[in-house]
């Protein structure tokens, strides 16, 4: 990390660098994953509202499973997770292409997601034809060539592996969905569980 200082005159200054850093999206890093990749244990990533008011999107080419925290003990938060207006304006829009976050590397309560609105997550598999290839790499989904995909989709907005227990608080998770296996003959899939879509209160 680089730090720069400008002095107006000859001055004696003591500078103490703390062990942790704040990383800012989009001011310093254009995507959340870039900030996660640069972060170290104990760092905080602040997700600011974009100047044009547009949501934060995820590059599923680089992150087909969603934003991967890679086992880091970091915090990803809006500018003020205790302000409902800030939470409502700090949006991660999955755009129906995948999930927002995936936890699969022993993350615990030292890994925190706070004060974000996550919308339009979708995890499913493509209709089977010659070969079945999930559009999201999910250990719960699978099928052989020409056969029905079996298993359940999990984590339309956030996926938690069984060895993880991160802390999620003051987040709004809305209009996210998962579907189960879709037939080898290309038929439409069905929701594995009717309650797998998370709706905000009042909908």
Per-chain topology:
Layout: E1 22-25, H1 32-38, E2 44-47, E3 67-68, E4 75-78, H2 84-89, E5 91-93, E6 101-103, E7 112-114, E8 117-119, E9 122-123, E10 158-160, E11 167-169, E12 172-174, E13 177-178
Parallel strand pairs: 1-2, 2-4, 3-6, 4-7, 5-8, 6-10, 7-11, 8-12, 9-13
Protein architecture, described:
The termini are far apart. A five-stranded parallel beta sheet has the order 1-2-4-7-11, with helices on one face. Strands 3-6-10 form a three-stranded parallel beta sheet. A three-stranded parallel beta sheet has the order 5-8-12. The chain is 6% helix and 19% strand. It is globular and about 65 Å long. The model is unreliable at 126-146 and 182-203 (pLDDT under 50). It is mainly beta. It has helices at 32-38, 84-89; strands spanning 22-25, 44-47, 67-68, 75-78, 91-93, 101-103, 112-114, 117-119, 122-123, 158-160, 167-169, 172-174, 177-178.
Structural class: mainly beta
Q: Uncertain regions: pLDDT < 50 for 5+ in a row?
A: 126-146, 182-203
Q: If helices are DSSP runs of H or I spanning 4 or more residues, what is the number of helices?
A: 2
Kindly report the average pLDDT value: 77
Distance between the termini: 45 Å
The spatial strand order of the largest sheet comes to 1-2-4-7-11
- What is the H/E string? EHEEEHEEEEEEEEE
Shape: globular
The percentage helix is under 10%
Q: How many strand elements?
A: 13
- Largest beta-sheet characterization: 5 strands, parallel
Strand content: 15-25%
Radius of gyration: 20 Å
């Amino acid at each position: 990390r680089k730090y720069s200082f400008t002095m107006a005159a000859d001055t004696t200054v003591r500078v103490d660098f703390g062990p942790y850093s704040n990383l800012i999206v989009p001011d310093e890093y254009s995507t959340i994953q870039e900030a996660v990749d640069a972060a170290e244990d104990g760092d905080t990533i602040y997700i600011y509202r974009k100047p044009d008011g547009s949501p934060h999107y995820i590059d599923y080419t680089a992150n087909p499973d969603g934003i991967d925290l890679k086992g880091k003990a970091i915090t990803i938060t809006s500018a003020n997770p205790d302000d409902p207006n800030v939470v409502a304006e700090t949006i991660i829009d999955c755009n129906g292409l995948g999930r927002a976050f995936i936890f699969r590397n022993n993350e615990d309560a030292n890994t925190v997601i706070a004060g974000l609105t996550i919308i339009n997550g979708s995890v499913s598999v493509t209709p089977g034809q010659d070969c079945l290839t999930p559009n999201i790499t999910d250990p719960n989904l699978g099928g052989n060539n020409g056969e029905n995909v079996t298993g359940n989709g999990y984590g339309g907005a956030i996926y938690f592996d069984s060895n993880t227990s991160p802390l999620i608080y003051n987040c709004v998770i809305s209009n996210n969905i998962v579907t189960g296996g879709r037939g080898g003959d290309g038929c439409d899939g069905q929701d594995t569980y009717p309650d797998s879509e998370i709706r905000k209160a009042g909908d």
